[in-house]
Amino acid sequence: MAIEVKVPVLGESVSEASVGAWLKQPGEAVKRDEPICSLETDKVAIDVPSPVDGILSAHMVQPGDTVKVGAVIATVEEGGTASAAAPAPVAAAAAPAAASPARVVAAPVAAETPSETTLSPSVRRAVLEAGLDPSTIKGTGKDGRLTKEDVVAAAQAKKAEAPAAAVSAPVAEPAIQTGDRREERVKMTRLRQTIAKRLKSAQNDAALLTTFNDVDMTAVIAARTAYKDVFEKKHGIKLGFMSFFAKAACLALKDIPAVNARIEGDEIIYHDFVDLSVAVSAPNGLVVPVVRNVDAMSFAEVELAIAGFGKKAKEGSLTMADMSGGTFTISNGGVFGSLMSTPIINPPQSAVLGLHRIEDRPVARNGQVVIRPMMYLALSYDHRLIDGREAVTALKIIKDAIEDPMRLLIDL
Prior knowledge:
29% of the residues lie in helices and 26% in strands. It is of the alpha+beta class. The protein has 2 domains: 2-162, CATH 2.40.50.100; 191-410, Chloramphenicol Acetyltransferase (2-Layer Sandwich). Strands 11, 14, 15, 16, 17, 18, 19 and 20 form an 8-stranded mixed sheet that branches. A hairpin with a 2-residue loop joins strand 9 and strand 10 (181-183). Helix 1 (121-130) runs parallel beside helix 2 (148-168), helix 5 crosses helix 6 and helix 5 crosses helix 8. The longest helix is centred in the middle third of the chain and has 21 residues, at 148-168. The model is unreliable at 83-116 and 164-172 (pLDDT under 50).
């Protein structure tokens, strides 16, 4: 009996996705709940599992297609055997017209996954970005599995062969080449398109303004140095700087509620909690998972939560629930070497704190010029809701708490 595989519910307000890659081919055995296809939504990649044990009969859509929730994307012959089902080509016509999603033109993406191989989320994303056929790549991982390094090496080899291949094989979007100068046209991923739209929308809708300050990191560095070993031994996680800034931000948001609020229509929504969005780098771009109730968490709980989201971002396994909500954002460009920036708010939030690199600079202390580890802080905010006085005061509270961490303990 043929069982239809449909696009699952993708999350609140998400009605469609793009087909990323097929993890199973027609004719291959599949088990119930085993991923057979990867979908890309505006925020995350989602694996579609098989509803039953059996044989994958046919693909109804191709990588790059746009599909809506409930659309049929494949069929599985329940209880079948590998010899009972012949591989079937992708054929949108085989699906009922009402269930067939609209086809969109897409740049070449990864071919379907070789049999008996399930790619990890990070490897699958690397394959998609490189536009490679994973069946042509030799895996060096355990049991011959592909690693991200295998994909990177194959992508580099592909680039080296590209000029010669372009001479003999026509392509839909030929590279423009003049001497050693080349151009390559690649379709934006759904995630990158969403990032572009949201950032531009924030600039268009909000009255953005940024206030700056600098902070002496001497006290925090000293505290971290003194307690990092015992902290890691007790909690199983390294003591970083993010937990200090997260807790300092909670002090500021408690004293200046507007910085933790949002505009909704002609109303202002205030929050008596802090759900902290933490900007982290993922293979396809910046993502912002949410650490909930940070104001009620310990330093160790904050560090564990942020580390967990960072790991999931690299693996491409963040869920819609991980990134929904959020009342305030911290973005740390300093890990990439940024000296100063004007971060853009994450709508519908009204403010974002930008952290930057720590560097030794000469500063005046008690009439003397001394060298201190300094960091520039930037608070971008929506001036429609937050007045300059409130923004400057909030940033000053954060600065004072970092320069005197005892304030974090006595809620000052």
